[in-house]
Design goal:
alpha/beta; about 300 residues; globular; lipid degradation; NTE; eight-stranded mixed sheet; about 15% strand; lipid metabolism
Length: about 300
């Protein structure tokens, strides 16, 4: 039975995920495949490339660089996070992404985008970590109102979290029956209706289906949380979530605050080390009724 890793988004709350993933890599905890959404995609790819510390390192170093992110970039280009700097200058020159290791690692890595014409999720398997994959990473993390629509492989895409924030059901459908799920919200969190829906409708009037998806997002997210809890109770999922609420904004760039969230991820990762090892070990001998039915 394949063991998967599901990485929720949350923009800079993704420093929490980075902390957990670094602990996993340091302790040789590996899975058969992973799927990342938004920040879970752009930060989670470093798990497949086995680059411990890279996510927190470049975010602390360049987070306050106007080329990295800011309203100047948003007004000038339509992207709050600078496309050229974030997806070319950093991974190609300043803090190189190890695409060679990414390609050699047999673990699969998927990202989720939202098709603005249909409002539905689109899933892409990344195999190179370069060129087109970088565009898929960018698309998955392109937050509405703060990003341009990304066109790749014939799709027009925005943030994958709009249509599928925690893609557990989809991942199970392709064979990942047991999953480690890293969330960026604490146990008490349930999503409420977004107060900016009227603005979404106005600015995305050419794409009514994605505006509709935004309106329904809180319902979708809370339903996915219920599935996560069901799978956790059934022993089919190991959920790692912040042991205390993360209060930073989605666009936080204070190095000290980013480090605090990262260290919380490390703390919770260390606390769950034994559980992760047991979960992966038992997955090799466990069975799932769905597998039997399909056979």
């Amino acid at each position: 039975m394949k063991t998967g890793l599901i990485l929720e988004g949350g923009a800079m709350r993704g420093m929490y995920t980075a902390g957990v993933l670094d602990v996993m890599m340091e302790n040789n905890i590996w899975v058969d495949g992973a799927v990342g959404v938004s920040a879970g995609a752009v930060f989670g790819c470093n798990y497949k490339s086995k680059q411990i510390g890279r996510t927190i390192r470049y975010n602390k170093k360049y987070g306050r660089d106007p080329r990295y992110a800011g309203f100047h970039s948003l007004l000038k280009t339509g992207d709050y996070f600078g496309t050229e700097f974030c997806y070319h200058e950093i991974p190609e020159k300043l803090d190189p992404f190890d695409s060679e290791t990414f390609q050699k690692n047999p673990a699969e890595f998927y990202v989720v985008g939202t098709d603005v014409t249909t409002g539905k999720a689109v899933y892409h398997k990344c195999t190179t970590g370069t060129d087109k994959d970088l565009e898929w990473f960018r698309a998955s993390a392109s937050m509405p109102l703060l990003s341009n629509i990304v066109e790749v492989d014939g799709y027009k895409l925005l943030d994958g979290g709009i249509a599928d924030s925690i893609p557990l059901e989809w991942f199970r459908s392709i064979g990942y029956r047991r999953n480690i799920i890293i969330l960026t919200r604490d146990k008490t969190y349930h999503k409420k209706k977004n107060k900016m829906i009227p603005l979404f409708k106005t600015l995305l009037h050419k794409y009514p289906e994605v505006a509709k998806a935004m309106k329904q997002r809180h319902i979708m997210y809370n339903e996915e949380l219920r599935l996560v809890e069901e799978q956790e109770k059934a022993g089919k999922a190991l959920v790692i979530r912040p042991s205390e609420p993360i209060t930073i904004s989605r666009t936080e760039n204070d190095p000290e605050k980013l480090e605090e969230v990262y260290q919380l991820g490390r703390k919770d990762g260390i606390a769950n080390l034994k559980k992760m090892r047991t979960f992966i070990r038992t997955a090799k001998v466990d069975s799932d009724p769905l597998d039997v039915q399909e056979k």
